[in-house]
Fold this sequence. Notes:
Layout (H helix, E strand, L loop, with lengths): L1 H31 L5 E6 L11 E6 L5 E2 L4 E5 L15 E3 L2 E2 L5 E2 L4 E5 L4 E2 L3 E6 L14 E9 L2 E10 L2 E2 L1 E7 L11 E6 L11 E5 L9 E2 L4 E3 L2 E2 L4 E4 L3 E5 L9 E6 L14 E9 L2 E2 L1 E7 L5 E7 L11 E6 L11 E5 L8 E2 L4 E3 L2 E2 L4 E4 L3 E5 L9 E6 L11 E9 L5 E7 L5 E7 L11 E6 L11 E5 L15 E3 L2 E2 L3 E4 L4 E5 L9 E6 L14 E9 L5 E7 L41 H77 L1
Amino acid sequence: MRNGRKFYYLLYIALIFALFSSWKVTALNAAELKPLDKFEVIPSSNVAGEPNVEYKFILKLPEGTTLKKGSKVKFYFPVGIVPTNAIPAGKITVDGVATTVESKGNGVSYIEVTVPVALTSGRDVEVVFTGGSDGAGLTNPTYGAKTFTFISSNLAKTTANYSFVGQPINSLAMGVSSEQAGEINVEYKWSFKTSEYGKLAEEQFIYIYAPKGVFTQEIIPAGKIMVNGVPTKKDSTVSRGLTVRIPSPVNIEGNQQVEVVFLGGEDGAHLRNPGFGMKRFLLWTQMNEKETVYYTFTGVPVQEASVVSVSKEAGENNVGYTFSFATSAYGALSAGDMISLYAPPGVFPDAIPAGKVLVNGVTVAQDLTVSNYTVLKIPTPVNIGNSEKIEITFLPEAGLRNPSMGEKKFLIWTDMDTRGTAVATFDGKTVQSALVSSSSNIAGETNVAYTFEFTTSDKGFLRKGDWIYVYAPSGVLPNQQIAPGKITVNGVPTTFATKGNGLTYVIIFSPVSVGNNERVQIVFQGGEDGAGLKNPDVGVKKFIVWTSFDGKAALNQEFVATTPDVPPANPVEETVPPSDQPDVIDDPVNNLPPGEGQNDSSDKEKDKEKDKEKDKEKDKEKDKEKDKEKDKEKDKEKDKEKDKEKDKEKDKEKDKEKDKEKEKDKEKDKDKDKNKGK
């Protein structure tokens, strides 16, 4: 018994040794195999899906190797190229010699070719799969980078890469059953036409990209999407919440119209509309490259918007703020969606550290950056439902600062709801001891230097980048933007200034910090290379200066005609701009939220009223000009009448002179007659 066990034990050891030796020899042989020195693939067309394409492979055998006549080699292709049937003899050539036997493969990924001629190393050899309707029958694969492989028993595997391009799809369009931002269970419909070579087999893929939040599931079950009226037979998967891959339930030909419908309703695909505004969608297939379509969704404003500051004193720093509002009936937000706030210039610091802002009592865990000095976007740390109250709390450490005195406008909107307006009133002071002077007070003179001076209030300090405003009468500021460096603040050139409100005021981004109760001097350079300011017409004119934190102060400057001893006929006093101008400026640096989808009817009505007032003022000016022209015409007529009267007077004088001459002549004639009588 023991001897039997010993025999089997020794037999087992011998088998293990034999297998190991065989594996070792095979491994050593494989290690000795060399790949081709050259392997290139050159199709006659690079367009995805094109049929009957010629494929040329260039091979170079490594030194010391050969391929004998009758050797079998395999060419591995990307899926979709290889015909399902064997390739007849003569449809492939090797080094110019046609094959004499058919070339077979698995009908999916490879073709085995019998070499019709011996091949040696050290030179390029061409293997050509003929193209055309009577060729080898190869069809280009889907677009993108693809790998080809050459395998021979006496050579190591060698690969080559080639990239194919897809034709674009045609006539892409989309529609939805509702355009309301945030609405759920909406039916979506895409239509397009495949390209000439855009043929798709059943279960090949159609892809659609949509904005974040449109696809609410990772898997859309079979039957919830229709392709040309046929429900999908397999599930469609959603990648990263943005791109759905749809296995077509039908064959689709080239140049065929296709309609893809995501069913709506409670038992549909559960698609949700994105936020308000114009949104981008993409559609493509395995054969056709991406095409873009845009669609605009409408929103409604956030509800019950309000803002509260712990302090009402203008310019107060490190103040706690609370913004509150309610989402609309479709305004639900997922964690990570954005809540946006607009505040007057200077309220928000450049950045707010993590942990200093709370949304419904939950801390925002990341740093926040303010864009364009006035807009802050906050990713909500919590999910928020439809018609739900939201409270955003800024701790004093967030660094918010109250704006200048007066009624100020704040705006609130989200990814789903358009902007709502909140108003707060602040008490404070104006800039102090304001002065204006110019290098010339001659009306209409160009390239004049202007100097404005004022003192900040006890809460009016300015940080570098805070805003200083200067209002000037119409026509003083140039039509174009003022170039950097042409304005100085306390002797330091500005890097940026912009104009707003019909070119009547300029906003200066202070290049220096200014303390409380500190004097500020603003100089607009004169001369040909200066800021380009021009004096207004004759009369006493009003200028205004203010900052982000100190209110407006009006300044007077008188301008005279070139000959000052002749007083102007009708001196006109410049009208002071309205006291609330301008808290929300005319978007000088895109600082207001995007206009798309925003519904602020009160603002629109105010704008209409302002436009009407402007139109009335323009009409009044036109009437004045007409009256002036009429007066001029009347004056001309009067002058003509006067000239006629003068001419008449002259004629009378001439007639009198003539009569006198006649009387003299008569007297002379009488004297002559008397002399004759004598």
